[in-house]
């Protein structure tokens, strides 16, 4: 699920860069925030799994 969020966040950020509309900055901010949070979730899951298997 987190990988889908990362792809969606990248698309939202990329589309907002292409458009020059007034709502582009909100899509860029929310896309960047979603990208950060999903990345932390993914890498945190890898770290927890590694500690459980060690």
Question: What does it look like?
Answer:
The protein has 54 residues and is mainly α. It has one domain. It has 2 helices and no strands. Helix 1 runs antiparallel to helix 2 (24-53). The two termini are 25 Å apart. The mean pLDDT is 80.
Contiguous low-pLDDT stretches (5 residues minimum) are: none
Distance between the termini: 25 Å
Helix tally?
Answer: 2
Radius of gyration: 14 Å
Summary of the model, kept short:
The protein is an all-alpha fold and 54 residues long. The protein has helices spanning 2-18, 24-53.
List keywords for this structure.
54 residues; mainly alpha; 2 helices; 87% helix; elongated
Compile the SSE list and pairings:
Elements: H1 2-18, H2 24-53
Helix pairs in contact: 1-2
């Amino acid at each position: 699920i987190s990988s889908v969020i990362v792809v969606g966040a990248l698309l939202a950020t990329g589309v907002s860069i292409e458009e020059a509309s007034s709502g582009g900055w909100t899509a860029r901010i929310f896309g960047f925030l979603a990208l950060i949070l999903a990345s932390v979730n993914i890498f945190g899951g890898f770290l927890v799994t590694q500690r459980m298997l060690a």
